[in-house]
Amino acid sequence: MLAIDLRRHHGAHPRVGAVDVVPFVPIDATGAAARPGDDLGRAIAARQRFATWAATTLGLPCFVYGPERTLPEVRRHAFDGLQPDTGPPVPHPSAGACAVGARPALVAYNVWLKGSDIAAARKIADAIRGPAVRTLGLGIGGHAQVSCNLVDPFTVGPDAVLAAVTTAARGLGVEVARPELVGLAPLAVVAALDPEARARCGVDLDHTFEARLRRT
After folding, report:
1. What are 67-122's pLDDT values in tens digits?
2. Is 13 part of the annotated catalytic residue set?
């Protein structure tokens, strides 16, 4: 089994540990994930159980996020003004720490650019960032990427984000290579797009929470 050891690990994305983020998202009887404003009580309870277990069993410092604070706040201040909610006060030597969340559904969505202009990716990320979309401009494997977390995908979905990235990229003389859905999306987000828009955005009805749960 391959173990990630932060003492020897290199990566482009901000992270606090080998198991960087463990989010808990409530789902209803149909498999639909919680939306912004929904009750997170079950997720908060599950978050606490996991954070306590990881601290006690693994000696892993855990920072909680959700209603109290955002994940970017944890990333910025972990061990520097913000102490772990459970576990030791210093990072685990090889595993670092873990951010344990209780949150509504989000969509992780990347837009790859043609070429390796990281500066352009960062400018695009700055241009499209907003309350419903968190963004970073990254360089990965010699390619530039605009990495997005759609924290309210029911309001700002993949189609709007792809359009915004494309417009900003054109203004910088850069072309979009392809979009990429990371993981799953809520059915309501994907179903809101017509088939042509789904194809353009790289999403489909099979890559939803509800479809995956039906297969389990």
Report:
1. 999 999 999 999 999 999 999 999 999 999 999 999 999 999 999 999 999 999 99
2. yes
Residue 10 is assigned to a structural domain of this protein? no
pTM (2 d.p.): 0.89
The angle at the Cα of 107, spanning 102 to 108, to the nearest 5 degrees, equals 100
- State the CATH number of the domain containing residue 210: 3.30.70.670
Which of 9, 13, 143, 207 is flagged as catalytic? 13
Longest C-alpha distance within the chain, in Å? 52
148 φ/ψ angles, rounded to the nearest 5 degrees: -125, 140
